[in-house]
């Protein structure tokens, strides 16, 4: 049984079909990176997995349970799927610690004290132990994103979905976020949509190349970077490399 | 003569202040009704079905489009024709409350709209239900953001309690009338005194609420620039 199995997902917004039958699987501890041009349904795919945007067709299984089944309690399922957003989406009225502990208190029903202890542990894990009292508006983008990662980690999810976690960051802040993500690789199952090729090459177990609502091809970083099967994959990787630099 | 008139003014003060009791009851009760209803309506417009949203929109339009005096007369005199009778004080609370609800709904709705949608999405993706996300994430921010608008509404309601005079509520304004009817030569000083009482109340409430606003302001959002 796979930890996550996505079967033939279809999603349309009005007239445009964004996902045209996407299937893949993930196993425990794996890191997979989804790459591809803008508007090819990468973010939509993540939102279809945790049912923020339910797909029209297809199934998603999490630890063997079909979560696309309308009769499952989706709030229970979402506790187990962490989500890290491009724009961080921290709660502005809470400090870092409260941002991380609120889910523990209100969703997992932990005692406040226990929740805050756990939250503190997660903040230290992302290197922000000293920033527990700071509010989002008092943090840099990189720090905010690390709080976002701590918030997802605290729920002890089966998998964390990252939706372009560094795209909104100034170049000098990207490194600290990628470092944190790299430190989680192997421990936490991660599905990451990103344009950071260095991260994809060094951390991913598999790279998935998506275009036009389809998975064009997937494979190990080495295979994808050196000998892609499809011409489009090579073209895209070449273009990205020249844009962002090789590493 | 001057001495005597000064005497009237001094004696008027306790009577005027006794009228304040009803002014306060009117203000507090109608603000409470307005706030609870206003928040519910704002939530209804943001999250309700199309029909709910349309009904609330219509309500807001109607109660913001009718003068308060007409609302009071409709509730107090109009409804009694079909057998629904209220005490003047109750009729005034209902009228002020219903109208304030329409304005407060707008204040809260604007605050709801100003919170980035991403925060709701983040709350839901933590596994919060829609109601939990409203209760723990949106509402605490909405209330903070609403303080300036709400403070303004507070003073409008306080001042408009004087219109309850018209349906016979014995509040500050009517107590004033009792006095100047007996001492018509004192009408100007008495009215000035009443004006002063309202003015002092409004100023103190504004001041008090702006202290509250600063205290609960979200950190990192202080927009004051020192230079």
What would CATH call the class of chain B? Mainly Alpha
The shape of chain A is globular
Backbone structural class of chain A: alpha/beta
Distance between the ends of chain A: 35 Å
Strand content of chain B: under 5%
Just name the CATH architecture of chain B: Orthogonal Bundle
What structural class do you assign from the helix and strand content of chain B?
mainly alpha
Number of strands of chain A: 10
Q: Please tell me what the overall shape of chain B is.
A: flat
Strand numbers in spatial order across the main sheet of chain A: 6-7-8-3-9-10
- Order of secondary-structure elements of chain A: EEEHEEHEHHHEHEHEEHH
Major sheet of chain A: size, sense and barrel closure? 6 strands, mixed
Q: Helix tally of chain A?
A: 9
What is the helical fraction of chain A, as a range of percent? 25-40%
- The count of strands of chain B amounts to 0
Residue ranges of chain B: pLDDT <50 for 5 or more in a row? none
Number of domains of chain B: 1
Strand content of chain A: 15-25%
* Mean pLDDT, all residues of chain A: 93
What would the average pLDDT of chain B be, to the nearest integer? 91
**Percent of residues of chain B in helical segments?**
over 70%
């Amino acid at each position: 049984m796979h930890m996550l199995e996505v079967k033939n997902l279809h999603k349309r917004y009005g007239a445009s079909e964004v996902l045209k039958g996407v299937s893949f699987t993930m196993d425990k501890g794996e890191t997979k990176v989804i790459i591809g041009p803008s508007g090819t349904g990468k973010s939509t795919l993540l939102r279809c997995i945790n049912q923020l945007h339910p797909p029209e067709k297809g199934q998603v299984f999490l630890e063997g349970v079909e979560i696309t089944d309308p009769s499952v309690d989706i709030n229970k399922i979402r506790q187990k799927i962490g989500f890290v957003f491009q724009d961080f989406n921290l709660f502005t009225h809470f400090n870092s610690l409260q941002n991380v502990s609120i889910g523990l208190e209100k969703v997992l029903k932990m005692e406040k004290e226990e929740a805050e202890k756990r939250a503190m542990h997660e903040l230290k894990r992302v290197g922000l132990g000293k920033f527990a009292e700071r509010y989002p508006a008092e943090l840099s983008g990189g720090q905010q994103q690390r709080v976002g990662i701590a918030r997802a980690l605290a729920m002890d999810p089966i998998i964390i979905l990252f939706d372009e976690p560094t795209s909104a960051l100034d170049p000098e802040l990207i490194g600290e976020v990628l470092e944190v993500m790299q430190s989680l690789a192997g421990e936490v199952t991660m599905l990451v949509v990103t344009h950071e090729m260095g991260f994809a090459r060094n951390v991913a177990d598999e790279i998935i190349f998506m275009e036009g609502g389809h998975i064009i091809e997937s494979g190990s970083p080495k295979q994808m970077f050196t000998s892609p099967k499809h011409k489009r994959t090579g073209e895209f990787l070449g273009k990205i490399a020249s844009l962002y630099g090789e590493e | 003569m001057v001495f005597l008139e000064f005497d009237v003014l001094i004696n008027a003060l306790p009577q005027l202040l006794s009228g304040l009791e009803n002014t306060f009851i009117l203000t507090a009760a109608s603000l409470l009704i307005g706030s609870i209803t206003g928040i519910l309506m704002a939530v209804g417009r943001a999250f309700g079905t199309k029909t709910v949203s349309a009904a609330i929109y219509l309500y807001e339009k109607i109660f913001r489009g009718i003068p308060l005096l007409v609302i009071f007369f409709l509730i107090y005199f109009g409804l009694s024709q079909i057998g629904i009778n209220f005490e003047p004080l109750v009729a005034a609370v209902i009228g002020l409350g219903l109208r304030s609800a329409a304005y407060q709904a707008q204040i809260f709705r604007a605050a709801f709209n100003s919170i980035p949608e991403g925060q709701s999405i983040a709350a839901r993706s933590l596994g919060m239900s829609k109601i939990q996300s409203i209760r723990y994430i949106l509402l605490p921010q909405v209330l903070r953001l609403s303080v300036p608008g709400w403070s303004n509404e507070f003073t409008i309601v306080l001042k408009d309690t004087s219109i309850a005079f018209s349906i016979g509520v014995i509040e500050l304004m009517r107590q004033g009338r009792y006095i100047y009817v007996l001492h018509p030569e004192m009408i100007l000083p008495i009215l000035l005194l009443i004006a002063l009482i309202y003015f002092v109340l409004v100023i103190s409430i504004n001041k008090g609420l702006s202290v509250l606003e600063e205290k609960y302001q979200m950190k990192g959002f202080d927009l004051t620039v020192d230079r």
